[in-house]
């Protein structure tokens, strides 16, 4: 039996190259290996936990995220992509799980703790029940689909750990229904921003989006941080402190990268030319992705149809799990 993968994202914005190298690429590889059965959820319910006052944003980003997935190579013939809110079984399971988790344990969850601190604007001094409880809902996401592997970043580790605890508790009380899922850490490390910041992010304004136009990419690369000690072209440079070089390593072929390194160190390379070359390579690299995206942007009805079909397929699995849960919990009244 193929191992089942469950992963997903909150639909709160378009995806950037940090997401691509950090997780999407790996998911596409896992999909294409044929060794797994993969489900990807668009976590709109979870997105609402910190965007409950902005339903429009969540709604619009469901399709954006879907288009990003499809254009990067997630193939609906191989992978089931579904909308979280359309699977009521997950919400139902969240309710049952909520008895198995203490408030103190949720408050200790490092990911939740960090996020609450970052969201003071929204929550003030007192966080909502929904946000505090989102790890419970995430545990339900995973187990509704009997997910065994969860490809995700390090920040998701405490959430998966909490899911494992819930599964243990559930099984010990109601009988063995679930398996404990495992995280598969994306080896693709975190991609730094154009400004050299450790993190690429929307709020930091230092990201290149998969949907960026050629003009936007050009403008952004031109603004990237280079070796600050290089003023004239013949100043000897240090590519290791240059973000342009950092991105060349992601987007340019090996020979080119070595050449850049050599010329920069020898003071034989101008930063503007170096940036132009990078711009060209990023545009080339993203071209097939952007072409696919353009196709889906022109055909929203196809995107919606794929989402609908994926969600219907997912629902069948969810119903099956819920049947087992209800039986185990002695809630199978009319069966
Ligand atoms: N928490 C994930 C994020 O921040 C999204 C998510 C929701 C998820 N449910 C999941 C990821 C289940 C993996 C498995 O984007
Ligand atoms: Fe960076 Fe290229 Fe300038 Fe060297 S020449 S500092 S690698 S932009």
Low-confidence stretches: none
Q: Judging by the overall fold, what is the CATH architecture of the largest domain?
A: 3-Layer(aba) Sandwich
Hey, roughly how much beta strand do the residues contain? 5-15%
The major pleated sheet works out as:
3 strands, parallel
Q: What is the tally of helical segments?
A: 15
Bound ligands, named by name, code or SMILES: tryptophan, iron/sulfur cluster
CATH superfamily of the largest domain: HUPs
Helix content: 55-70%
Shape: elongated
What fold name stands as the CATH topology of the largest domain? Rossmann fold
Structural class: mainly alpha
Give the total of domains.
2
Radius of gyration: 22 Å
CATH class of the largest domain, named Alpha Beta
> In which order are the strands of the major sheet placed?
1-2-3
The N- and C-terminal alpha carbons lie at a distance of 29 Å
Mean pLDDT: 95
Order of helices and strands: EHEHHEHHHHHHEHEHHHHH
Number of strands: 5
Descriptive account of the structure:
The protein has 335 residues and is mainly alpha-helical. It has two domains: 3-191 and 299-328, Rossmann fold, CATH 3.40.50; 212-294, Tyrosyl-Transfer RNA Synthetase (Orthogonal Bundle), CATH 1.10.240. Helices cover 57% and strands 8% of the residues. The protein is built from 15 helices and five strands. Strand 1 (3-9), helix 1 (17-33) and strand 2 (36-42) form a beta-alpha-beta unit. Helix 9 (134-144) packs across helix 10. 38% of the residues are buried. The model has no long low-confidence stretch (mean pLDDT 95). The chain binds tryptophan (TRP) and iron/sulfur cluster (SF4). The site of tryptophan has 14 residues, from strand 1, helix 9 and strand 4.
